[in-house]
Amino acid sequence: MELIRGLLILICFALALLFQCSSNVEGRYHHHKKQKDKSSPVSPSPVSHPAPARQKPVPSSPSNPKDSIFDVRKFGAVGDGSADDTAAFRAAWKAACAVESGVVLASSDYSFKITSTIFSGPCKPGLVFQLDGVLMPPDGPGTWPKADSHSQWLVFYRLDDMTFTGQGTIEGNGQKWWDLPCKPHRGPNGSTAKGSCDSPALIRFFMSSNLVVSGLKIQNSPQFHMKFDGCEGVLIEKISISSPKLSPNTDGIHLGNTKSVGIYNSMITNGDDCISIGPGCANVDIEGVTCGPSHGISIGSLGVHNSEACVSNITVRNANIRESDNGLRIKTWQGGSGSVSGISFENIQMENVRNCINIDQYYCLSKECRNQTSAVYVTGVTYRNIKGTYDVRTTPIHFACSDTVACTDILMADVELLPYEGQLLDDPFCWNAYGTQETLTIPPINCLHDGQPQKAVEASAYDCNS
């Protein structure tokens, strides 16, 4: 009897202990869940670049209603790389232009050849040119229609809210243009023949706004790969541009009189400037770009033929420049006017680059240029965290400013440039350049004057808004 009683007490004690553990576990679960729900962060908003350019969703494939997709093959395009598909593209463009969110579709697995064409607006908003196949011009000047422009091929004119995108390739067929004897050193015995040497820019956007170019592979342009003239609100991202290192005048992206531009996460290799920024450009943001081989990122040339040139608020950051003849360059002609201001180069990695940091106010294509008293005023240029290696054939830092109009407010911080191989032959060069060193540079730049020049520049005389 005592044994049974003891067993009953033991069983009751075990059941009580089990209930208490279960209650504690359940209580801890609900407390943890409550705390987790209470402290769970709200999903962050997507990080967007602080670019002035308009941002909008970029389609990877047409998601528009079927009645707004205009496949060029249904308009008669053959897509065999030989037939002339120009008429089909023009007809598809006309149809897509007339409807909202229309899509011109050039499908994958086809190669389309078209002659020089102007795709003009105005069009209904949301127009998309979707290239998933290959698009190419005639192969060289010998097959170029005589009536067509020799200065441009694909032109997009007077458009607003238009996207050029896809996973396809624009093949420029540039080799026969590069070999013309009028091209630099392509004539007999390495000479350059005189006379006109027009070659087509591959893609040109003219007098247009709110543009997106994304995803495309652009290669082997006869001359500039992509130009923007008189445009505002441009987003370029995730594109690839390529042509051989010695292909002449094959700038990657050229901006002229264009404002509010974002260029992001793209790769450019070519025979001239990776990105060139001409007169009349402002509010340009460049980030995540890899250049090289190329001639680097250039502002200019500016002020040719005594012209006024105004460039302001340009930012280049988190970029790589490799195996290039220039790194970060500002180039102006003698005799110009206007100003270059508010320029920031930050977090740039160099690899075997000549002229890594370069301001050249004596730019000239011959030996016949003379010094002049007028010049484009260069002020407010920041170089921050510029590191890597340079080609020792030229000094890595070169500030050649105008005799009469000094460069001012140059800021140097965390600049460390080492020889790629060999030893530096010349120290950094400065002429009439004024600024501040936040940190010591490598190599030391003792030639940069502190503060301001004794004869201060009258800013109003170079005011581009007047």
Features:
3 helices; mainly beta; 33 strands; 466 residues; 12% helix; eleven-stranded parallel beta sheet
Explain this structure:
It is a single chain. This protein has 466 residues and is mainly β. The protein is 12% helix and 39% strand. It has three helices and 33 strands. The strands form two sheets. It has a 22-stranded parallel beta sheet that branches. It has an eleven-stranded parallel beta sheet with strand order 5-8-11-14-17-20-23-25-27-29-31. The longest helix is centred in the N-terminal third of the chain and has 38 residues, at 2-39. The radius of gyration is 30 Å and the shape is globular. The N and C termini lie far apart (112 Å). Residues 1-61 have low confidence and may be disordered.
Give the termini distance in whole angstroms. Answer: 112 Å
Point out poorly predicted stretches. Answer: 1-61
Helix content: 10-25%
In terms of structural class, how would the helical and strand content be classed?
Answer: mainly beta
Number of helices: 3
Computed CA radius of gyration, to the nearest angstrom: 30 Å
Shape: globular
- What is the count of β-strands? 33
- As a percent range, the share of strand residues is 35-45%
Residue-averaged pLDDT, rounded? Answer: 87
Largest β sheet strand count, sense and barrel closure: 22 strands, parallel
